[in-house]
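Review form for a predicted model. The reviewer records the input and the model, then writes brief findings.
Reviewer: anonymous (R2)
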Amino acid sequence: MSAYRIAVFASGRGSNFQALVDAQRAGVLGGDICVLVCDKPQAPVVGLAQAAGVDTYVFQPKDYASKEDYERGVAAELARKGVQLIVLAGYMRLLSPVLVEAYSGKIINIHPSLLPAFPGKDAIGQALQYGVKVTGVTVHFVDGGMDTGPVIAQRAVEVLAGDDAETLAQRIHAVEQRLYPEVVSWFTGGRVSFDGRKVTIVE
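Model under review:
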């Protein structure tokens, strides 16, 4: 039986990408990261992928007439690779129906808040500004909206007295890097089912 095939989409430093690679190397991911998709050729995550021996599909959106045009190229590459799950890991673009519809129920994202609180950009800054005592991390399905898909898993992170965006982000990112590989392993193990917004993890 061939390995479960995973594509990771990322735009930046790649800390969650590296956590997924490390989990694969440790034998706990349950699948094969077969391609990194990146919209920024100079992003550090591209170097991480090359160092890990992961194929890359790198493009610049400005080279295309529309989002749909470059996503068709991405979709063709995913089809060639036999991708079964798309994992967004700091990918800073909303997906169009080209990918969302083709991979419905097979695209997940991680967000640094307890959704539906603080969607969109700067979720950590939003949480600090609002004055919440607890925030956290959410892994959710992608449905084309801004962090609106059904919730798969959440972990709480306490906001400590004296926290600023940097100190809170450090603790949130540490939780992300543990949770995301775990959730991906649920997919590779066939443990995730959902009906509407209700997501069930089979034990």
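Findings: Residues 136 and 172 are 6 Å apart (CA to CA).
Further findings: The chain has six helices and nine strands.
Recommendation: see findings above.
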